Amino acid sequence: MLRNPEGIDVLQPRLSWLVNTAIPGVEQTAYQILVASTKEKLNANEADLWDSGKVTGNQSINVVYKGEKMSSRKEAYWKVKIWINKGETLWSETNHWSMGILTYAEWKSTRWIGYEKLSKDDSVSQYSRLSARYLRKEIDLKKQVKSAKVYIMGMGLYELYINGNKIGDQVLAPVPTDYTKNVKYNVFDVTSQLKEGKNMLGTILGNGRFFAMRQDYKPYKIKSFGFPKMALQLYVDYTDGTSETIRTDESWKLTTDGPILANNEYDGEEYDARKEMKGWATTNFDDKNWVNARYVQEPGGFYEAQMTPNMKIMGEVKPISIKATPRGTYILDMGQNMVGWLQLKVKGKSGDQITMKFAESLQDDGSLYIANLRDAKTTDIYTLKGEGEEIWEPRFVFHGFRFVEISGFPGKPTLDNFVGKVVYDDIKTTGTFESSDATMNQIFKNAWWGISGNYKGMPIDCPQRNERQPWLGDRTTGAYGESFLFDNQTLYAKWLDDIKYSQTQDGGLPDVAPAFWRYYGDNVTWPGTYITVGDMLYQQFGDAEVIKKQYPSMKKWMTYMEENYLQNDLMDKDKYGDWCVPPESLELIRSKDPARLTDGQLLSSAFYYQLLNIMKKFAVIAKEESDIAHYDDLATRIKKAFNAKYLNTATNSYANNTVTANVLPLAFGMVPENLVDKVFQNMVHEVEVTKNGHISTGVIGTQFLMRTLTNFGRGDLAYKLASNKTYPSWGYMVENGATTIWELWNGNTADPSMNSQNHVMLLGDLMIWYFENMAGIKSNPETPGFKQIIMKPDFNAGLTYVNASYESVHGLIKSHWKKDKKGLEWSITIPANTTALVYLPTADSKKITVNKSKLEKAGIESKTEDKQQVLKLYSGEYTIKIN
Asked: Which residue intervals define the domain Alpha-L-rhamnosidase six-hairpin glycosidase in the entry (predicted)?
């Protein structure tokens, strides 16, 4: 959820609030929302836009605005009063949102401008080079400014300046889209930046995904969009009640002869400080050598407000070592595989040129290992102006790296000359996890670095090589796990729009969305992510509106697959198999052993069955209940055909008995009830004995492995998989120096040129398992958005303590337990206006104390269920002990 957003285009935004109080057992009993057009009116409780009246109930998230119809650029100030069961009435602070430009017609008089030519050193090729475009426009404001907002679409990337000052702290803005489908605009309140009299507007346009996607290289595969361009509107309201609009037109001045000589996401940025134009974005600058901008063709996509945060510098990493090489260069070690760029601090002569080459690892001789970057050059070049200390960092690129080779540095560089800038979407870290197992703790840190680094306005697969694509299959279940670590709601809601926009007219979905690569392969397991991510947004954030919005396109795809690929009630289409199964030899990239590979029809049929069950739930949310009968009938037929073809009742196994072949029907409820335990025990034997307690699943099977093992009573085996240090395992990566998650289980021994050292797809359901099964922080599916929390850790899996927290949409949840021979102690925090079902591993209530009181005297509702005591707890802090 965006706090105080500028320029939204949702006519009925959803309003949410947290009930913050230290009083235990608090539940909201009613609320009243006031929305006013000015802050003054709101302060006077004059709700000229909406007064909800007193609404009885405990809803505190996703309350739909039902006031006056909002028009373009309308301001809205709001607050909420809540009543709680403890006798207090509480007012919130004032919040605000503003509307964006809602119709295409209101942009129509604003022209797109740019320069659609190559400059002297530019080129269009596999390694395209294109210099940045600098634009400026002097404006004369004749009156005192009351308020001003700027609306900007800068393709592919932009930086905006007013009177020499950069506007906003965002980087690499806006977020990427398929620009032929939709174009995002950003909005900034610039009232404080403008003054009466002369002012200067300035922008720098970088290439981003718009130009530098290997332009005109493999046009059958890679989409290209043209040269950078911009459309901007500045609305100024004066204190006398009049207003003025400044737009992009041919009066803007432009040059490509600035210091940014080239900027390409894959290849790096080149900057010549000698060409800096001091004061170019101020009024005291001579632009006689600049040319007038030209009107250019618009990108083609519809204009939309950006409803997800831009990227930002979210942290810094200081390098841990710098070493000279026999080649006269230096190798800088950041100590962490990170994503972002390097800030450089240097003194030298004019014309000195420093080259920085980025990579994830080193070869045996200490030089950079770059084969896994493929044809990405990943190199920044800085040419000094020679005027004392110079500090520089790039604007329009990012790198995935741990090591940097520095060449051409004047003198001997030290660690103080460099700082790593960590760049990802401006979203909050919401989850923490620590346990008694050091390997699991390091895996969690590696996951955090990998997930955050691959948030680039969309979830990408890797940040370092010539790919960096939003593959759907990497996030099928991964997005769910990520949601415990990051507040990724708006990121994934935007991504579902990207997927919807990429849908073909007949209903097909791509494997990559936005479809920067034309990969339309018609399989189930990759495009099915469209539906599973929607399910995550509903369960984790209580977002029903996203389901209603996407349901028609989801249904269209399900129908498309059914009509084209359902044969004899089985889904006869798969493309990738159980991708990245650990191969039989450490030197192999892909397994060639048929016994390790799972039948593609089994994968697609099982997955489609599961998607049908999710669509049944979505049909209810979207009020399309008439679809349920068809989903039910189809699921029944697929289950019957699936078991008839793949279930071997003599061996109690599916197909060729891979762990994936068995775990999917178990996880999805496809196994005949009388055989569930036998199939599970057979799968356990495969994991525990045949595979010696190690992972044998690829991307598909690993999405359900940890939870299925635990839910069926073998959390100890799941813990063994999570804590292993030998191949294949997540811990094997840690033992071999990984600080993120690899693309391959054997990324250090198979052809390393095929291994991204910063991927997230192999995490599967591991992060979900950390939080739901080890910490016991899970949203009850019946009450999405953690309205009721299910707290049911597996205390016997093998850990002796867990300390975890999660900032849900209803507030902070904490679970900290430790056990020894004397018993179990568990500290719990439950946020206000929620409840929790807390499962304790004993049926004997006499052994239990809650906040130092015996359970029988604590006044807590409890029951016995499956040899466990189940407590219903209301908000507050609790310390539970079991002797």
From this structure: 429-774
